[in-house]
Design a protein that fits this description.
Length: 469
């Protein structure tokens, strides 16, 4: 099936290999998938090709010179392609046994790699996935533009953009793009501090309800006896202390969006009542005689893992099905460490402006240290750390000590060895073994191993690099 196209935007791929038979066979395989397929058997011609056409995908061999197996040529041309056409997805082709080179290519900006001799189905799937990802980024242009022009948003904190260029956060943006214009209820999963509220507001802003109310209620902060009144409202005299009528948040959100943060805190009996409201589209206040029709879209969020949500004694499964027509899982910051420099720069701009300070410089060494830190509080912790550093430092450059992470810094080699003496099954060792076992089980197939582990391909690549597998 041919990749989607528009009148002004034909799908395109450039295949670069010094073997003309390879070029011909790949072209035949991809002929029905792309509108434009161009072949290049001399890598020095790559800049000329890129000057004439903006390609969605480039399929690039790693070695060109006779008897060459270092991959240096492929890495060089990968760098050139990324410089000339950074929006193009580059897939590396490498001989079997050169997986270490492929990992190096991924670190240098390649989107994926395939091993020669390739399986036709695998090659087609990899190229198609790269093309789909490229088009999803195009669809999220508005969000990417926000990331590149953060200063225009600094005076409006409620309009903070979703910042990130990692594949995992771009996939989140693509899901938002596809689901926001609909009226589908959405469930957002993620650890504390990952930005669930930010995602909910973005969905509302991209929906047809953006001219109506966005009502946010944190169910984790409400006393148990007040849940029903907060959500459904009450009539004067309905109970002791009800001295006047109260409009519930559900009615307040009529024609708009209701965001139920930490929805798993809702007591079981009220889960039943909420399910009834969502099913019948009407709500009855405490003490009222008649129900009132409501038209709302519900976005719910929780920090509970999905496995706990599936416990029927904790959360009604029929309500869960009603809430998660679309489900979005936000990654922890440690799973998208490549986005940390972007986030740090954004928060440096924000708080330098807020506290009337000159924006300090931050070295690559310090950024790398921040990327190695686990950030248990996720983006919220990073934001607080940057704000604190801006407030307490008078220097023109920020160092890792300014972020005050010493109490929970990444373990040093010495501390790891010390801990291993008292805790032989240290968590990192367990994770390393699980990754190793999954890779062995599927003979190095990244997609199958990642699915087995319940993580993304990008997250698996990072663990392969981390544990030197």
């Amino acid at each position: 099936m041919k990749a989607p196209m528009s009148k002004d935007n034909l799908s395109s791929i450039l295949i670069v290999d010094d073997d003309k038979e390879t070029l011909t066979s790949v072209k035949l395989l991809l002929n029905s998938s792309f509108d434009i397929i161009q072949l290049c058997d001399e890598p020095k011609q790559i800049p000329t090709f890129l000057d004439n056409t903006t390609y969605d995908v480039v399929l690039l061999d790693m070695n060109f010179s006779p008897n060459s197996c270092t991959g240096a040529e492929g890495l060089y041309w990968l760098s050139e392609i990324n410089h000339i056409s950074p929006e193009t997805r580059v897939i590396m082709m490498t001989a079997y046994g050169e997986v270490d080179l492929a990992i190096q290519a991924l670190k240098s900006g390649a989107s994926d790699f395939i091993v020669k001799p390739w399986d036709k189905t695998k090659l087609l799937a990899t190229v198609t996935e790269a093309y789909k990802f490229k088009t999803s980024i195009k669809k999220c242009t508005e969000n990417v533009t926000k990331c590149k022009s953060v200063k225009s948003h600094l005076r409006q904190p409620s309009e903070q953009p979703i910042i990130g260029q990692s594949p995992i956060i771009q996939q989140v943006l693509n899901t938002i793009y596809l689901s926001a214009p609909t009226d589908a209820n959405i469930l957002i999963l993620g650890e504390n501090g990952t930005g669930k509220g930010l995602i909910a507001r973005e969905i509302h802003q991209q929906s047809s309800r953006n001219k109506s109310s966005f009502i946010s209620i944190d169910l984790g902060t409400i006393a148990e006896g007040l849940f029903e009144s907060e959500l459904f409202g009450h009539k004067k005299g309905a109970f002791t202390g009800a001295t006047q009528n109260r409009v519930g948040h559900i009615v307040e959100a009529n024609k708009g969006t209701l965001f139920l943060d930490e929805v798993a805190n809702l007591p079981t009996q009220l889960q039943t009542k909420l399910l009834s409201v969502l099913s019948q589209r009407e709500v009855k206040a405490i003490g009222a005689n008649q129900s009132k029709s409501v038209d709302i879209r519900v976005i719910a969020a929780t920090n509970l893992p999905r496995s706990e949500l599936l416990d029927n004694t904790r959360f009604r499964q029929d309500l869960l099905y009603r809430l998660n027509t679309v489900e979005i899982t936000l990654p922890a910051l440690r799973e998208r460490s490549e986005d940390i420099p972007l986030l740090v720069d954004y928060f440096l701009d924000m708080y330098s402006l807020k506290y009337n300070r000159s924006k300090p410089h931050i070295s690559m060494k310090t950024l790398k240290a921040l990327q190695r830190y686990s950030w248990p509080g996720n983006v919220r912790e990073l934001q607080n750390s940057v704000e604190r550093a801006i407030i307490l430092s008078n220097e023109s450059e920020l160092f890792i000590r300014d972020f005050q992470l010493a109490a929970s810094q990444p373990k040093t080699e010495v501390s790891i060895k010390t801990q291993a003496q008292t805790q032989p099954l240290e968590l990192g060792n367990l994770e390393k073994q699980r990754v190793k076992d999954a890779l062995q089980k599927y003979t190095g197939n990244i997609s199958h191993a990642a699915k087995e582990l319940g993580i993304s391909r990008a997250a698996l690549y990072r663990r392969i690099e981390k544990y030197e597998l």
